[in-house]
Design a protein that fits this description.
The protein has about 150 residues and is an alpha/beta fold. The chain is about 35% helix and about 20% strand. Helix 3 crosses helix 6.
């Protein structure tokens, strides 16, 4: 058994050499799964990378752990110089498909996701991904968000 495989079998994921959050989610999600996620970010590009699995789930309960991110989405409430894009290194082709991905993600959010937010900034840093596939429950706990860096 390779060292890489051995590490992943032990469940340690770091979005780098020890596996990615998206790998865990893709491995454990099946049609009809119930998900619960606590994270500061979930981008449309992460949705796009996992859409074949996410479109098949039954429901997702999502708790934003960082409410300041929501305020940064409103340009009237954001200092233009302070705004930064979290998914560095995206190819131009991805940017050109942004509108279609955003539409599909928005429809998925409306149909399958309940979203809540922690009201106090800096109260919650940890991330949690819990999947109930109807037979077993799987969980990943740590500090990795669902962004492009967390996808293959």
């Amino acid at each position: 058994m390779s060292t890489q495989r051995n590490i992943i079998n032990h469940g340690i994921r770091d979005n780098h050499t020890r596996g990615k959050v998206a790998d865990f989610l893709a491995e454990k999600m099946v049609a009809g799964s119930q998900l619960s996620v606590v994270s500061a970010y979930f981008t449309i590009y992460a949705y796009d990378a996992l859409s074949s699995q996410l479109d098949q789930i039954d429901h997702l309960n999502f708790l934003f752990g960082e409410p300041r991110f929501i305020a940064s989405l409103d340009p009237d409430k954001t200092d233009k110089k302070a705004f930064k894009i979290e998914d560095e290194g995206l190819e131009l082709a991805n940017r050109l498909q942004q509108k279609e991905v955003a539409r599909r993600c928005a429809a998925w959010l409306r149909d399958k996701v309940d979203i809540r937010s922690v009201r106090q900034a800096n109260l919650l840093h940890g991330k949690l991904y819990h999947i109930d596939d109807g037979r077993r429950e799987h969980a990943l706990l740590g500090s990795s968000n669902v962004t492009v860096r967390a996808t293959p």
